[in-house]
Design brief:
CATH architecture of the largest domain: 3-Layer(aba) Sandwich
Largest sheet: 9 strands, mixed
Structural class: alpha/beta
CATH class of the largest domain: Alpha Beta
Number of domains: 2
Bound molecules: ligand 26Q
């Protein structure tokens, strides 16, 4: 495909041609790694290429940062405990416009770019949607030329690797840093002390003002590691700054001198533990103290850094602060940034409380990603008091003022105050982080229209009644660079040949595909591309599981974290029903289907792990049944991760988005599938509602009870038994599990699953089962109509433009952040007259 980007922006110290790249690659191998081609390992070769790519980012990075230093624009700070970046090489090459040249350079050296790309280990510093959203946002921020920093934690161990042994998930530590990470630059010159524990002394100054002094705290240092985040077809390169913990003293001298060497080393180890490992739970049940330490560590280092940068550019003109910094909180995990900024402004910078508070609320924005009550973050006042005594005081003060305000609005409404309080006084006293985040922000947003509506109807209804203008919606999006241009070269090229390549930067241009939807040759090519996307996935699955699949079947895919509300179980029950139908009626009309499931379960989430086991046992049974195996297969792909998603999603025909209505805040996988020409099989949940709105009801399969219907059923009493009694198919499916058909020799293995859906069925699996079966039947029928399916597939892509994270970031920029792009032109930089002659 034509991949020529406008070349005016190309910075020229390191050439962007294949010849210069070759030179760089060999130079890096020799002078950075100290090897020649003969002894270089595959990883050495990958590193040499990666170094050659990052070098070309660095020039633009410096240019960008210098420019920002000069114009001192308002910057966006995206604070997140997770950045699920995946691999960088392929996307770096695409964003820099270097892909084809690099491919050519490597080919001439007898190397293969695709093979080298596969060597890179994913940066898996996130669990799922929230972390990947942060990564997509970084790509869009840079592409749009917005001055921005991502701030997060440099975990030594990212999300665990998942192995499947005898059908069960086994967790393996992710030692992603044991091999060199070429994309980061350590900045030991940027380090900040972060304090924990101790006590607060309240002094009265000579002039009568009160002063709080924090004594006897332990100190840990936060060291910055920077990764450049380049935009596509632009000189803008922003920064992802991740903090790593370093002990403040190499040894505790007292312990050391008293002869206790191990105690001395141990203290060092304990404080450095803060950034050891990412919490592998994508809900917040685990109220562990280490997690709170992590959250405060991120926030404290980040706020010090932001204030340092502000003072460097604007001194102590605090009135400018909120017009120079927009800080976005990715869920409540970094919400301590609010009391931390209060502490810095009031205690360190001597601002009056009211003034500091106005600065805070003008600066912070908070994004909510969940309504599940059990996932709303709270911390016990006890833990907070002992770990962060000053912050606990500040939170009490914030709450005191906030309660006064509530009282002004609603005099005498004690119950409302109790509900809205940042401190939950019932039982063990705790801090409600969501209430803190709402109180301390000028904008609070949900991540899809339905979710934002439910948010103000339910968990934040009192807050929305008091400050309606504070609440808004920012429907999620995904970056088209990674999720179409990079992940699906075949479809990208076909699209570009048909409508040009502007869609990469303006995804709404995909609409132009509607002009060729009836073009017979285009349609034929479309089918071929979709077919070919299956081949590498088939190889991967055979390699990882031994299961052999056929590309001539419908690929029906559900990939996402394992969660009861996401209802992988509903998909599994459908597969059993389909299996029974095939067994009982050899002449049944069927659409040959390949069902693919992947996802990790939180290590302590036993039900989710049991569902993985059930899926694997179903797969063992049906894949080995000669009566059915030509029509129905199932594969559970181990170790779902960003790089696997890039292979799985393009191969899908049907995209399973079947969460219990009202439970999935948005979903972003749903968008990636639609963008790659898969048709959604979905409930009216999260962004599925908006996908329906875009593609139209003829190009999607929607089923199941709606959120309001389920609300009524909960209120009036829901009995799954009535649905079971009504459906013979459902009875037989459940019976097959019950009689240990999938667990021979292990009687009752799946009992907990059956008990849960037969008796409580919190996620309405039974209530939606028959509706799902019908929708699946419709999808199977539609797939057999090749022409109809082709149209649906093309229209899904044509109408998915709105789900670009560029659109989302533009909305944040104008409606929440008030930030503007800064053009980075390539004048004045290294050119042919470069004195260093470094080409
Ligand atoms: C919190 C405290 C302690 C330990 C872990 C956590 C924790 C970690 C990760 C809580 C939640 C998460 C991740 C949540 C998440 O990924 N939410 C998803 O966000 C997506 C982006 O907005 C949405 O599309 C999904 O609907 C939502 O589930």
């Amino acid at each position: 495909m034509s991949n020529k980007l406008s070349d005016s922006w190309q910075v020229s110290c390191r050439g962007f041609d294949a010849e210069s790249l070759k030179k760089s690659i060999l130079n890096n191998l020799e002078y950075r790694l100290g090897k020649g081609m003969k002894r270089a390992t595959e990883y050495d070769k990958y590193l040499s290429v990666a170094y050659s790519v990052i070098e070309r980012m660095l020039e633009k990075w410096i240019l960008t940062q210098d420019k920002h230093g000069e114009v001192k624009p308002k910057r966006v700070y995206y604070l997140s405990m997770e950045f699920l970046m995946g691999r960088t090489l392929g996307n770096g090459l695409i964003n820099l416009g270097l892909y084809d040249q690099c491919q050519q350079a490597l080919q001439e050296m007898g190397l293969d770019l695709e093979e080298l790309r596969e060597i890179e280990v994913d940066a898996a510093l996130g669990n799922g949607g929230l972390g990947r959203l942060a990564a997509c946002f970084l790509d869009s921020l840079a592409t749009l030329g917005l001055p921005a920093f991502g701030y997060g934690i440099r975990y030594d161990y990212g999300l665990f690797h998942q192995k499947i042994i005898d059908g069960r998930q086994v967790e393996i530590p992710d030692r992603w840093l044991t091999l060199t990470n070429p994309w980061e630059i350590a900045r030991p010159e940027y380090q900040y002390p972060v304090r924990f524990g101790g006590y607060i002394e309240h002094q009265i100054e000579r002039n009568g003002t009160r002063k709080s002094v924090w004594h006897d705290s332990e100190e840990v240092y936060a060291i910055a590691y920077d990764t450049p985040t380049p935009g596509y077809d632009t000189n803008s390169v922003n920064t992802l700054r991740l903090w790593s913990a370093k002990s403040s003293e190499d040894f505790n001298l007292q312990d050391f001198n008293s002869g206790d060497y191990f105690a001395a080393v141990n203290k060092k180890v304990t404080s450095e533990n803060i950034t050891k490992v990412l919490y592998p739970d994508d809900s917040s049940k685990s109220g562990r103290e280490l997690r709170l330490r992590q959250e405060y560590f991120l926030v404290s280092a980040t706020m010090q850094d932001i204030v340092f940068r502000f003072k460097r550019e604007h001194g102590t003109q605090w009135k400018l602060f909120s017009s120079k910094a927009a800080i976005q909180l990715n869920d409540t995990h970094p919400a301590l940034a609010i009391p931390e900024l209060m502490r810095i402004l009031v205690d360190d910078e001597d601002l009056k409380w009211e003034r500091a508070w106005n600065i805070c609320t003008d600066t912070f924005g908070y994004t909510n990603h969940t309504l599940l009550p059990e996932a709303l973050e709270t911390w016990s006042v006890d833990i907070m008091e002992s770990l962060l005594p000053r912050h606990m005081e500040i939170i009490y003060l914030i709450n005191h003022n906030f309660m006064k305000e509530v009282m002004r609005y609603y005099p005498g409404q004690i119950d409302r105050m109790r509900r809205m309080s940042i401190i939950n006084e019932e039982g063990l006293k705790s801090v409600r982080m969501a209430h803190l985040a709402v109180a301390g922000s000028h904008k609070v947003n949900g991540v899809a229209a339905l979710h934002s509506q439910l948010m103000t109807d339910t968990i934040f209804s009192d807050f929305a009644a008091m400050s309606p203008g504070k609440f808004t919606n920012m429907t999620n999006g995904v970056t088209p660079r990674r999720w179409l241009r990079k992940a699906n070269l075949g479809l990208s090229s076909l699209i570009t040949d048909a409508i040009g390549n502007e869609w990469v930067k303006d995804l709404t241009k995909l609409r132009d595909l509607e002009n060729v939807v009836n073009d017979a040759q285009f349609r034929q090519q479309w089918r071929e591309v979709k077919h070919n996307c299956k081949l590498p996935l088939i190889d991967l699955i055979q390699h990882d599981t031994g299961i052999i699949l056929s590309p001539f079947t419908m690929f029906d895919v559900q990939v996402k974290r394992m969660h009861e509300y996401k209802r992988q179980l509903l998909f599994a029950l459908f597969i059993i029903a389909e299996y029974l139908r095939l067994k009982e009626d050899p002449n049944a009309i069927v659409t040959p289907r390949t069902c693919i499931i992947a996802g990790k379960a939180a290590p302590a989430y036993h039900m989710a792990k049991l569902i993985i086991l059930l899926i694997n046992r179903i797969a063992d049974t049906i894949n080995n049944d000669i009566d059915t195996r030509d029509f129905l297969r199932l594969a559970f792909v181990p170790n779902y991760r960003v790089s696997a998603a890039e292979k799985i999603i393009p191969a899908a025909n049907l995209s399973e988005q079947i969460s219990t209505a009202g439970k999935e805040a948005s979903g972003t996988g749903n968008m990636k599938f639609a963008l790659n020409g898969a048709i959604t099989m979905g409930t009216l949940d999260g962004a599925n509602v908006e996908i329906l709105g875009e593609v139209g009801k003829d190009n999607i399969f929607i089923f199941g009870h709606t959120a309001p219907e389920l609300m009524t059923m909960r209120r009036e009493g829901y009995d799954p038994q009535t649905y079971i009694e009504e459906s013979e198919i459902l009875q037989r499916v459940l019976h097959l599990i019950d009689c240990d058909f999938f667990s021979p020799g292990e009687p009752g293995l799946f009992r907990p699953i059956l008990d849960s859906i037969r008796h409580h069925d919190e996620y309405f699996v039974m209530a939606d089962f028959m509706k799902y079966l019908k929708a699946q039947d419709d999808a199977g029928t539609a797939y057999r109509d090749v022409e109809k399916w082709t149209t649906m597939s093309i229209l899904n892509v044509a109408r998915s433009g709105v789900f670009s994270s560029d659109r989302t970031i533009n909305e944040y920029a104008t409606e929440i952040w008030d930030v503007k792009p800064v053009l980075i032109s390539s004048e004045n930089e290294c050119n042919k007259n470069c004195p260093w002659s470094c080409g």
